Amino acid sequence: MSKRTVSFAISFILLSLNSISAQTSFFTPTLSDYKSSGWTLSLGISGLGGSHSPFEDEILLANTSSASIDTVYSGTWTPDGGIHLTGGIGKIFVVKRPLLADRITVGVTGSRRSISETFHGRIAEPTLQTDAIGLPIDSSITGAGQSINLGIHCAALRAFTLSQDVFLELGIGATFRCDFVSDFEFISSTPLYLSEDSGFGVESEISPYSASFEIRAGAGIMMWRGRYLRIQFGADILQLAPINATSKLPWLVGNYRPYRVMLHWDLFGLRPPKPAGSCAAPTHSEKAKELFGKDMRKGRKTKKRKNKRG
C-alpha cells in the first residue's frame, strides 16, 4: 500500500471523527430559517462502466462419448456502450443532529440504456466456418440491446466544509432499477443463443430488475441561503440482484458497472413565520372590557380620607 493511500485513509478517518464529535454540519445554519426538507432536481449523464473494454470469453463442454472437451465458442467480445442523458427528481432531508450523515436523499431517475457487443472468434458446428483448404477461420457476430431504465435511489451523504460556501461530499446509497421497453436484436443466434442440449440457458434472457449498493462522491456550492448546486458521481459497488462474482451487472454477454454523473439543484423553502406572542387578552373578549380584574384588585386596601378641621 502506497504512502499516498495511507495518508488519504488517515485523513478521511480524522475528518469523519471530527464530524461525529462536532454534531454540526455545513447545512446546520440552514435549519434556522429554512425547512429541514426540500426538493432536488437532477440532470446529467449515465452509462455502463467497462462497456468499451474488450474481454475474452469461451464455453467448454465435456464430451462423454469421446471423453474429451469440446469448445462451443472461444473468442473476444468488443462492447460499445452508449452514454445517455439522465434526469431525475427527489427529496432531500437535512439531519438536525448529524452523526455520520448530515443529509438523506430519496429520488427517481430515468434514462436510456444501450450497448452492442461484437464477437470475433471460433464457433463450433453447425456455424463453424472454414477456408478453401478446410481450416477453421474466425467468425464475427454482433448482439445489441437497449431499454428505458428507471431507478429509485436513496443515499446518506456527508459534507466536508472547504469554505463558507463550498463543500465536498461523500456518501453511500442503494438503488433499485427496472428496464422498460427492452429491445434486443442479434444478427446471429450463436453463441448468443445456445442450444438446449448444451446445458446453458439463453444468454439474452436478461432480468429487467436489478438492485445494488452505490458509492457517491462530489462537491457543492451554496448559491444563496437555501439554494445549493451540487455535482455528484455515483457508481455501483455491489450488485444485490442479480449477485455475481464480479459485483457488476450482467447485461447481454458482459458484466458492467452502471454509473452516472449528475448536477443537482437543491431547493429549501422558508419556515413559516411563528405567531408573535402577546400578554394582552383578545380585543373583543369579555375579559378585555374589564380594566382591572379581580386578580389585580385582590390585596388592595381602600383608604378613607379624613377631613381635618382646623
Which regions have little confidence, pLDDT < 50, spanning 5+ residues?
A: 194-204
Question: How far apart, in Å, are the first and last alpha carbons?
Answer: 112 Å
Q: Order of helices and strands, N to C?
A: HHEEEEEEEEEEEEEHH
Instruction: Give the mean pLDDT.
Output: 78
The radius of gyration computed from the alpha-carbon positions, rounded to a whole number of angstroms, is 34 Å
Computed structural class: mainly beta
Strand content: over 45%
Number of helical segments? 4
Largest sheet: 8 strands, antiparallel, barrel
Briefly note the CATH topology name.
Porin
Strands, total number: 13
Question: Can you tell me the overall shape?
Answer: elongated
Q: Count the domains.
A: 1
Please give the CATH class. Answer: Mainly Beta
The side-by-side strand order for the widest beta sheet comes to 1-4-5-8-9-10-11-13
What is the helix content?
10-25%
